[in-house]
Amino acid sequence: MPSKVNAVVLYHTDACHLCELAADLLQQAQVVFTAEDICDSELLAESYATRIPVVKTTDNRELGWPFDLKALQEFLGA
Question: pLDDT of 34-51, one tens digit each?
């Protein structure tokens, strides 16, 4: 079932195995998302350096790791 959320961002960095797990969960939940590497922005790096992976919705709600598929779906209202 596709997500009801219009836009989801996954904040991550390359070579982050937890970020890869989070991306896999988003795909399992059939969520269309954009992956934003926090290393591309000093502001994002400062905000998320120790918290990634983080899923953020257009209404600025955030779900930080750890989470599983059920928690992700509940967060997204699926």
Answer: 999 999 999 999 999 999
What are the two backbone dihedrals, phi and then psi, of residue 58, each rounded to the nearest 5 degrees?
-65, -25
Decide if pLDDT at 1 tops 90.
no
Structure token pair of residue 43: 């502001």
Reduce the DSSP state of residue 56 to 3 states and report it: strand
Rg, C-alpha atoms of the chain: 12
Q: Which pTM was predicted? A: 0.88
62/65 Cα distance (integer angstroms): 10
Helix (H, G, I), strand (E, B) or coil at 22: helix
> Across the chain, which distance is largest between two alpha carbons, in Å?
35
Distance, in Å, from the CA atom of 26 to the CA atom of 45, rounded to the nearest integer, reads: 22
**Alpha carbon distance 54, 70 (integer Å):** 16
